[in-house]
Amino acid sequence: MLSILWMLRAGTRKTAKQLAEALDIHVRTVYRCIDSLCASGVPIVAESGPNGGYTILSRFADSPLIFDPEEQKGLVHAAIFAKEAGYPHSDALDRATDKLKRYANEAQLEALERHGVGLSVIYPPLDGAYRSYLQELEQAAGQGRTLEMTYDKGRGEPSPSRLFDPYGIVYWKGSWYAVGHCGYREEVRSFRVDRIRELRQTDRSFERPASFSAKDYLLGQLLRDSADQAAWETVRIHSQEQVLNELCRHWLFGHALTCREPESATFKLERSTLETYVPYFLMPYGTALRIESPLLVRRMREACSRLLAHYEAVVPTNDTREGDDE
Question: What is the rounded CA–CA span in Å between residue 136 and residue 178?
Answer without folding.
Answer: 11
